[in-house]
Amino acid sequence: MNTRRKWLETMLRIASPVLRALAEDRLREVMPIESKSPREDRAQFTYLEAFGRTMVGMAPWLGLEGLTGEEGVLQAEYRALYRRCLHNAVTPGTRDCMNFSAGMQPIVDAAFLAHAILRAPGVLWEELDPADQRNLVVRMKETRTRRPYVSNWLLFSAMIECFLYYAGESDWDPMRVDYAVRQHFDWYLGDGFFGDGPEFHMDFYNSYVIQPMLIDVLRTVGHTDAEWQRFLPRAERYGARYAAFLERLIAPDGSYPVLGRSSAYRFGCFQMLAQQALQRLPESGLTPAQVRCGLTAVIDRVMAFDNFDADGFLRVGVCGSQPDMGEGYISTGSLYLCMAAFLPLGLPETDAFWAAPDEGWTQAKMWQGLPMSAEHAI
Q: Which phi and psi (to 5°) does residue 16 adopt?
């Protein structure tokens, strides 16, 4: 099996139980809620988590033009599934109509859904029924009733405003974008790392949220403000450096250090490396082939464990079912941020990411004793 086919099959295996149930308006009925918190607490949030996070990784593949053959047929099927899912998620009166208005968590996952749409707007927004577009805008605006925490959460509010800007809403709020961007550059610590707030956290939130959203917020609305335009090259340079750091964490056997909170997002911690490959950010020093081979090794290593329940939904853990790996805010829906590793499926199979000959990633070459160069901070 070629590598692209293996990635595609893995992505669809993870996504299908969520999307097929939601398309049938049965997600609440069939998706379990595994969490340390009371079920009634996480039931308010877990379904939007599952949908938004699934889409944030699948979006570039859904938006890729020119697919033919079996992959083209699959893409058409999942585009149609998405439209039915979106309708059920935002339409009052459906069984799976999702919560955007109560509690803090919907700010997070509305932003992941917004990010997904902005990664493939021609398919995920322009092809929606006008009534579903209107309902989605209403739902997104419902998140404005709460203030995000002064942390990476500022980018969730900024991403929602970027979606509203793209959707043509005249009341999109540039101040929420400006505050998020300026605060994060104030929190920049050096060598490609941002603080999550004023202090450094040893976790993967630079990859889960900060760097991917910061870059795409600026790519979406940066042209509307001269100062935001000046921030974008810096964000991309820092993102490229951070992606290089992530690549160096992949061990020769495809394992990686499991560090910090939210580790149950599994290989979602490599989102910024996957986005670097998708967007070809400058100055990373990485070749497409080494990124492909490194990410493939990680995906294979994690997927060698039994990570699913009997109905195909993800279980809490990194290496199979490890319930104690989940914090109180983690539930079944949260786990689908692992989908962010599949962003390069938005590149055509002729792209060097897929077509270039296999190449060892940094640690694979290092521990074979091959010639290597020292690296330096930016």
A: -60, -45
